[in-house]
Amino acid sequence: MSTSLSRSSSIYSTPPQTPSSGTPPPFIMCTDFLPNLSKDLSLLLSENEDYNMIINVGEQPNVKQFKVHSIILRVRSSYFRAALSSEWAKVENNYITFNKPNINPKIFEIILTYIYTGTIILDESISSDTMSILEVMMAADELCLQEMIDYAQDYLLLYKPGWIQRNFSTTHKIALEHSNTFTKLLDYCNEIIVNDPELVFCSEDFNSIDENTFISLLKRDDLLKDEVVLWNHLIKWGTSRASISKDLSNWSSKEFEILSEKIEKSISHIRFLHISSGDFYKRVKPFAQCLPPDLFEDILQYHLVPGHQPSSDLIQPKRATIDSVIIERKHAALLASWIDGKDELVQNKRDCLDNPYEFKLLLRGTRDGFTGTDFHQRCDSKSSTITIMKVSNTGELIGGFTPINWSSRNDWGFTHESFIFHLG
Predict the structure, then answer these.
(1) Cα-atom radius of gyration of the chain, to the nearest Å?
(2) pLDDT surpassing 50 at residue 7
């Protein structure tokens, strides 16, 4: 894939007429031949003419030497502008020598082509390997090439969202490390955390997620996960970070102590009272040594002693969910925005963590019936309702909101707040 960030254009302008002695105003013409300029500059790179700088890129055994022109690098990159200053430049045999062991030669070649020609070329070996595109972005960030970063981000978000979701932890970690420049990628990752946290748990590299992100997920009230499933995720995550055997039968007190240290900050965010007695016995009790003794004893009494009142730290609400087989939390957040009269601007929309409304299911067609009688039996006298239907062949969602009470009587109500909608 080859994309040019420059274009040829012609601009013609005639300045305003001004009184004169009869001399016609000058005709100004400005024409850009940037593609030709780009092509000619590429010859400097490919033919190694008049170079004054040698860059050794990569580490053994994968090292490549690039013969370049320092003036072009200084003009195009603030990194090289600083690195090639008189205080830092190293000269050997009349050539400036420079080493970049931390960049892959193939990645650096892409960057050099961009620096010389303004063209980003991602061949099949790069475009098919999303991690290589991230490497291009990281190298471009080090060399202060924001235009290149922005293009690569747009490419990833347009063509590789599935890869990002499958490798969420890796992508999010890299975006966090480059938060000042990978802003689009970081925003996309944060949107997933807020609106589709299940995608994070389902990612192939979930066990490598950073601790703060994991804790932020465990704090969520709207996770569509059983509490014991979250506990299992925590144990797998902690075991992976501790680099200890997954076979519990081979553990000594040392392994339990190591795991305890890894999950110490996360344990308080597991809502143990919402784990069934059976799951507690099978899944939690084997790791009793990893829990504070007082906490484990409190949970044990809750399950074994009728009427036991657990400590206030243990009492946490059950995670809220939307009882729907048609819409998801992101749909509910969008509907809440429309109910509040918010427009389509992203900054004004509500997200899944900012939804003030509780969505209570009144009628489900597959459960309660599809007739008008079924509808009015369950919905009459109910106000502020949303009716949603799913088109069988297309999966489209259509519906409407009304703040007025439903009624079987043949009359009309008046409101400016109702609306109908379509979700593709």
Answers:
(1) 31
(2) no
